[in-house]
Amino acid sequence: MNxxxxxxxxxxxxLDDLLSRVEGSEPCFLEYLRMPGLTSALYHLPAGAKDMxxxxxxxxxxxxxxxxxxLRVGDAEKEVGSGSILYVRATEEHSxxxxxxxxxxxxxxxxxxxxx
Length: 116
Description:
Elements: H1 15-20, E1 28-34, E2 38-45, E3 58-73, E4 76-81, E5 85-88, E6 94-111
Antiparallel strand pairs: 1-2, 2-6, 3-4, 3-5, 3-6
């Protein structure tokens, strides 16, 4: 006999559905999952936009769904584009700039061990 799975045990999201909710000419942050140890969002920055985020208390992984930009973490800079996977440690100053093509990112936030 199969045991029923509670709604909080799993969720399924369709990327195309999420993308349609962040399209446009304005920056958009869509949090679509919040659990005790993990949060996920879709972040859209149109070409030429300014990224206004501040450091987070969680470790972050970004997956670049589409677009091109430069990621600055502290004093270091790296060009990123479709298919790039980025890690940023909790509390690090970081931002995207030189956004030359509309940038859409999947962002995953996980609890960080700040005692390290």
